[in-house]
Every structure is written in structure tokens, then in C-alpha cells.
Amino acid sequence: MRADARRNRERILAAAEVVFTEKGPSASTEDVAATAGVAIGTVFRHFPTKQALLQAIMKDLLHRLTGETSRLATEGDPATALFTFISHTVEQAAQQRGVVDLLAESGVDVQVAESVRALRHGVDELLARSRAAGAVREDVGVDEVIALLTAICQGALRAGWGRDLRHRTVAIILDGLRPPAHRLASEQRPAAQ
Amino acid sequence: MRADARRNRERILAAAEVVFTEKGPSASTEDVAATAGVAIGTVFRHFPTKQALLQAIMKDLLHRLTGETSRLATEGDPATALFTFISHTVEQAAQQRGVVDLLAESGVDVQVAESVRALRHGVDELLARSRAAGAVREDVGVDEVIALLTAICQGALRAGWGRDLRHRTVAIILDGLRPPAHRLASEQRPAAQ
Amino acid sequence: MRADARRNRERILAAAEVVFTEKGPSASTEDVAATAGVAIGTVFRHFPTKQALLQAIMKDLLHRLTGETSRLATEGDPATALFTFISHTVEQAAQQRGVVDLLAESGVDVQVAESVRALRHGVDELLARSRAAGAVREDVGVDEVIALLTAICQGALRAGWGRDLRHRTVAIILDGLRPPAHRLASEQRPAAQ
Amino acid sequence: MRADARRNRERILAAAEVVFTEKGPSASTEDVAATAGVAIGTVFRHFPTKQALLQAIMKDLLHRLTGETSRLATEGDPATALFTFISHTVEQAAQQRGVVDLLAESGVDVQVAESVRALRHGVDELLARSRAAGAVREDVGVDEVIALLTAICQGALRAGWGRDLRHRTVAIILDGLRPPAHRLASEQRPAAQ
DNA sequence: AATGAATGAGAATTCATTCAT
DNA sequence: AATGAATGAATTCTCATTCAT
User: Fold this and answer.
1) What's the half-sphere exposure (Cβ side, CA atoms, 13 Å) at B14?
2) By CA distance, what is A181's nearest residue in B?
3) Computed from CA positions of residues C124, C127, C132, C137, in that sequence, does the dihedral angle turn out positive or negative?
């Protein structure tokens, strides 16, 4: 691929994230093209279908998240790595409405399945370490963690939760994951508004 | 309003719930009309805009939920009423894809604000009672509860969580709401699959 | 169907015949709409697909032709009915470029198959009578007749044969269909230009 | 022109014949390029327009046919040369859908006029010889012959006539060209299926 | 009030053609 | 000369909404 082509591909992906974040997944491809400063044909040359474009964004996102799980797994404190990951992700999501929309919306077909698997694997590792460190209940599985994470990200975005609400909501969930002995006392929780 | 007009209004609302539940919020108004067995013009006579139709469904849903909070507030065990409400709602949501989609999708503008307020009030009451009974932490507010409820409903629908995953996810949240002394031991939680 | 709807349907069909006749089957649906004096949506309401529109025209044409076979079978001279039919059809075709284009072009699928069968039946009847009258060779079948007819119509249209050429070409074919005893002498044939 | 340029020109022409034969004249130029194994720009460097490419193919075809007329004129039996030519051409056409499509489709404008003239000349020669040998009626002209040939080729292709139907159809036409004394008896004609 | 036909502004996608590399 | 990326007009089809019957 030529240099200019790759550059355009990046610009389109970036534009798509912005546009879909602002207007939801039903924003038009035309809009993405305009934002990227390219002609509509260029978008379709790089992503032959709107679906393909959406999936590309998803893959990107999933890849970035998976990257963070690896980083935390090696560098972070095992006891808190999972909690950090969840908190970070929710915060980031707050800036990425459309992307997460897609995560749910569009048929998460074979194309992205692999990326999803990769992320699941990364989260599972964090979970295992936290469990080993006694920071997470024994009876909690990856599926619940990912389910909660997804749900909270969606909620944060769609309903446009503010920072405070986000923090308090996440706090409740993190506490729900902890074994009784590790639960936070009231004064350690984010204060209600 | 004539009797047959009122009857049509009901049929349209019912049809809309079915159609949007099955096909998501981008299902066409024509589809709703066909399901309701009326002509497209009739739908627009009752609901001047697709948005208006969506909002009407939301109001309906919110109204029903608010009704359940009242019922539980008077009849239920104060200690468990809130938890019952959350569990029930999530289960119901699993059968109502489109409706909850809308809850998020369409800007929850002025039109439904009042219904939302009513629900919030109902939930607040349940929360107060649960708190008074010592079943919920002191530092948990209505906003978090509603936020979590919404997020979980969305997640359950969009991602199509199965019954088990739903239960385990809800269990984590409920535990996060409990004061340390009331937390459930592992064996009281739904078992992982 | 309402009166105005039926009127529009007719106008669209008529416009489509004109447009496709002039510009070939790749003329745009938009063009048909403009010629018919309706909005594009109206065309698609009546014919949900471009294919459907093309097929509707074909059916119309086939139906008209079948009608002529019936008329000739009852009213015409058995000895010449088939020849009259062929000559007439070719002449008409000369005014109907696009229509015949379609006859070939677009997948003659199930939709039109029945109409084709009807025409085949009508032609078969004419052929049987001519054969019985000794005006057509015993070894000629319907398939050849229809094949020749189609081919000549196409040729006449596409290549824009003039009247004379059309007549002389048809004359050769008709002679090919005759038993030796009935062949026309030179002076009975259309003169070369 | 460079050697590799000439080689590319040939490859493009060959690819175009294949592609248009398989997918009809509306096949994309990209498709031709891909089949030829060159970039799209190269196609347009050699043929500045899709039309130009189509015309080039036509010229090629016409040239080959003209070649066959010459061969038959010198080598063949004068009495049957024309008939052989017609039969051969129809058979070949059956393998060349797209090409003949084009023959009709694209306005046979000035560009190819010369090639057409050449073919006409060749056919005329065959016709003259057959006439001289008494194998073709005196009142048949080149135009009719070419008209019939074109029509049958088109028909054979578009409608996808099978071998049998092709033969019987051609037989009728050839008989129509013969003077009465030379007509074939039933048993000499291809049998109906 | 109900009907359902008409409208027309998009939306996704294709493709001939141009042009920078 | 070749490459292949970019362009953008055109095309088919959808759907919310209006309006004549």
C-alpha cells in the first residue's frame, strides 16, 4: 500500500471514530468521508462496506484494550490490575460513544470474533491474577466481568453519565467483585454528589 | 377521541413494542402499521413523528416500571424490595430489546422527562426502605441504582446474555450494593456455568 | 387499488416503454419517473425493483402478442396466419427497442415464465394450423419459430434495420418455413433496394 | 510503442474478450484489468475509453470473420462456402456472448465502420460465388445475409439456444436462401428434438 | 378518522476516468 | 510506461412524512 493510501486509511478511521462517536452508528458514510477530507469513493475503496468500516473501528478498539490488559498484567499490581483496567476502560469509553454502540449493534460476526477472543483472554489473565492475590471473589468468571464492563461502558456513553456518577457506579461494581474481607468502607468510596 | 380511535392507538403501541423489540429501533413505521393492521396514515395521525411513537413506548414502559416500584413499596419486604425490582426489571428487559434500545437511542428529551422523574421517585422510595432496613449501603444513591439498572438492561439485551450470565451479573451488582455485613457467601450466589 | 394509483401505474409502464426503447435497458429508473411525471418513490412503490419494472413491461408485451395469436387463430386464414403474425410482430418490434432488449437481457425468471408459456402456446396453435393447411413444412417446430422470431425482432431493433431490409429478411425466413411446393418466386418477394 | 506495451495491449484485449463474454458488456473495466493482470491505469492508457476498448474488440472480431470469408472464398466449394460461413459463425458466436452483445449495444459508430465494410465485402464475395453456382437465389442481397447472421448470432447467445435448436434454426434460414430447386427434403434437415 | 398513494431527501454502493507516485 | 489511489457523478432503493380520496 502506498504512503498516501495508508495515510488516508488512518484519516478515515479517525474520522469514522469521531463521526460515529458524535452521531451514533447510523451516521452516514458520506459524513465520515467529509470529515476525513476525502471523497466518498475513497472510503469505499478502503472499506468496501459500511459494516467493514464499523468492524475496523471495533477491531482497533478491541486491540487497544487488549494491549492495555497485557501492560497491566506485566507491570501492574496484581491485586488492583483488573480494577484499574475496568476503571480506565469506562473512562475512555465516555469519549467514544459510537464505537461502543457498534460493539453491540452491528452483527459481531466472524470478522471481529478473533479480536473479541483476544480481549477475553487478556481480561481473563487479569482476573486470574487478582483472584490469586485474593482481591476478587473466587466465584466470579470472565464472562461476568466482560458483561459488566460492556454494560457500564454502554451506559456511560449512551446516557451520558457525568464523571461522578461514573465513578460511583464503577465503585459499586468493583465492590461486588471483591471478597467480603476486601470491601471498601464508606469513606473509601467516591462521595455521592 | 372516538372509541375506535382509542382502540387503534392501543393497537399501534402494542405493535410498535413488538416490532421494535424484534427488529430494533430502525424498524420502519410501515412495519409497525402493518403489524397493527392499520394504514400508515393512521400511525402518523396518532403519533405525529416516529420519535413521538418511540417516546410513547418509553413512557409506557417507564409507567409500568414505576407501577412495580409502588407495588413493591407497599407489599414487599423492605429489605429485599429493591433487589427484587432490579432482578425483575432485568429479566423483563431481556424480552424487550427494541424498547430499551430506544431508552438510550432517542434523546430522552423533555417529553419523557416526567416519566423518568416518576420512576426515579419510585426507585428512590425502594432504596430508602432498603437502606432503612440495613440491606443497602448508606452511601448508595438513586442515580447509581438507575444507572446500573439501565446499563444492565441494555447489556442483557444488546449482547443477548443468557439467563445464567444475567443472574451472575446481577448478583455481583446486588452484592456491591450491600453493606459488608450482608454480603452473600459464595454458595448463596448463582453458580458459574 | 385507487383510481389515481392505477393511472400512475399505467403512466409509469408507458414511460418505461418509451425510455427503455430509446435508451436501452440501462436507462435509469429516475429517468422513467421523470418521463412519467411522478416522483422516484412512486415508481418503486409500484415496482419494487428495477427488474420488476422490466418484467412488467415484458409481461405486457408477451400478453399483447399472445392476444394477437388468438385473434389470428380464430379470424385469419390458416395458411397465412403464422406468416402474418411473424411479419406483424417484427414490424411492431421495430418501434420497441428496449422492450425486446429486455426480453433477452434480464433473467427471464419464474415471473415471466408463465407469460412466455402462454405465447408459446399461441404460436404453436398458429403453427399447427399452417402445417395442416400445407403452408409450413412438417419438420418445423415451435421452438425454431419462436427462436427466429426473437432473433429477427432483436436484430431489427438493435441494428435499426429499415423497412425494406426488414421485409426482405422476413421473406427469406418465411420461405425457409415453406414446403418446396409453396415457395415464392422471385417476383413475389420484396425487391432488393 | 515498446515491446512490453504491445504485449500489454494484447493481454488486455484478450482479457476483455473473456470478461465481456462471461459477464456481458456492463462488466467493469477494473474486472478486465484484473483479468489481464495489469493495473486499471494501463487499460486506460491503451484504450482511452471503455467504448474504445469495446470497439477494439469488435474490430478484432470483424477482422477474424473477414479473414474467414477470404479463406472460404479461395479454398471452399463456391456452392456451400456461404452456408459454411454462416454455420461456423453462429457456432462460434455461441461461445462469445459479450462480444456480440457489444456488436449491437454500442453504437456502431465511425470507428468500426471500416471493419464492418470489410466484412460486408467478404460476405458479398461469398454470396456472389454461391449465386453464380446456383446455390443461392438471385434476389438475395448482402444486407439480408448479414442481417440474418447478426440476428441469429444474437439470438443464439442471448437466449442461450442449445446446439440442436441452433442447427434447426440455421437450417430454416439456409433453406430460405436457396432457390426452390435446391431446397432440402425433410430427411436432410436436422431432426427436431 | 382512516386509508394508502405520492413525495423526495438521503443512503450505500459502483465505476469510468484522472492523476500523483 | 505502469501503477493503483482518488475522484465524484450516477444509480438503486428506503423511509419518514404529507395529502388527496
Assistant:
1) 10
2) B180
3) negative
